[in-house]
Q: What sequence folds into this?
């Protein structure tokens, strides 16, 4: 159970409007088929190269199209594995506790019931992402070469251990809110990319359809979560929010390095390719664009009213 606040009166979500009224008819876990790669599809691009800057680096292009193809397959593995572990490790534990009333917040009964729907959705997203990895391996022959866990999990653990015990229990809920309100260019753009295999586009489209409802849910949750914290807890947690946003959106450089090593680059070449393909200012600007809605929601509930919190957002280039 998350210890949110010792205050006797904790606010509830005002006028909660559920986005799940048509869940039985629209949720991919209810009506969507299992997506499988078609051997006759003919597509040989598994991830948009425009979203993988390393494939434009001279060290990669000079190695030819097969190396580029393998790196794009690896990038798909990274995305699908990230999805599986995000859902199972960071979101489902939170929505499960919300559903059974153990999140430390007083919520509308409909909001608790909707949390169960999100838990069901996210378990399906994890399952179909893991299934697609196995399918792509079988079709491409490219082995899965990934770290034991995505970098966001270890980084999130470090953040949680660095904060005061009075706030530590709120960190998972804060991270779930952040991760579910950010706008992913992958979810937005991949389903429209006709170069990709149909199953890849359909899996991401199924995910995006469900996540639209989740986004609305967690936007509502912010309006209860932040006021429920004491002022001291807000001052502790607020300056950490930019780090949580960055953890979710920053490229997983360790996972990318595994892909580059698999196609034959040396350690020194990997370091150079990553540094030159992901300039810090461009990476920070991309994170700020994707976080725009989340930052707006946090501003609306007063999270940026605190000077230290506002300065942390400015240092991270999330606000001017």
A:
């Amino acid at each position: 159970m998350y210890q949110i606040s010792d205050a006797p009166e904790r606010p509830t979500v005002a006028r909660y409007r559920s986005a799940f009224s048509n869940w039985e008819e629209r949720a991919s876990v209810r009506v969507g088929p299992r997506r499988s790669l078609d051997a006759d599809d003919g597509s040989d691009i598994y991830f948009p190269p425009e979203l993988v800057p390393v494939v434009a680096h001279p060290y990669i292009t000079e190695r030819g199209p097969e190396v580029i193809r393998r790196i794009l397959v690896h990038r798909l593995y990274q995305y699908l594995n990230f999805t599986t572990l995000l859902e199972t490790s960071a979101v489902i534990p939170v929505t499960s506790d919300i559903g059974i009333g153990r999140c430390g917040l007083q919520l509308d009964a409909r909001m608790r019931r909707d949390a169960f729907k999100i838990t069901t959705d996210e378990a399906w997203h994890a399952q179909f992402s893991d299934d697609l990895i196995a399918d792509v391996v079988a079709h491409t022959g490219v082995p899965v070469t990934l770290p034991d866990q995505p970098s966001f999990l270890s980084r999130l653990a470090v953040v949680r251990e660095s904060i005061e015990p009075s706030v530590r229990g709120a960190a998972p809920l804060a991270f779930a809110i952040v991760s579910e309100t950010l706008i992913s260019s992958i979810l937005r753009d991949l389903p429209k990319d006709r170069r990709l295999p149909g199953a890849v586009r359909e899996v991401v489209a199924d995910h995006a359809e469900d996540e639209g409802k989740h986004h609305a849910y967690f936007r509502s949750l912010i309006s209860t979560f932040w006021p429920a914290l004491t002022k001291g807890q807000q001052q502790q947690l607020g300056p950490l929010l930019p780090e949580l946003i960055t953890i979710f959106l920053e490229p997983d450089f360790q996972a990318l390095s595994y892909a580059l090593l698999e196609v034959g680059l040396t350690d020194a070449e990997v370091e150079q390719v990553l540094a030159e393909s992901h300039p810090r200012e461009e990476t920070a600007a991309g994170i700020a664009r994707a976080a725009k809605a989340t930052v707006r929601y946090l501003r609306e509930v007063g999270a940026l009213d605190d000077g230290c919190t506002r300065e942390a957002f400015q240092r991270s280039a999330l606000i001017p």
The chain has one domain: 45-315.
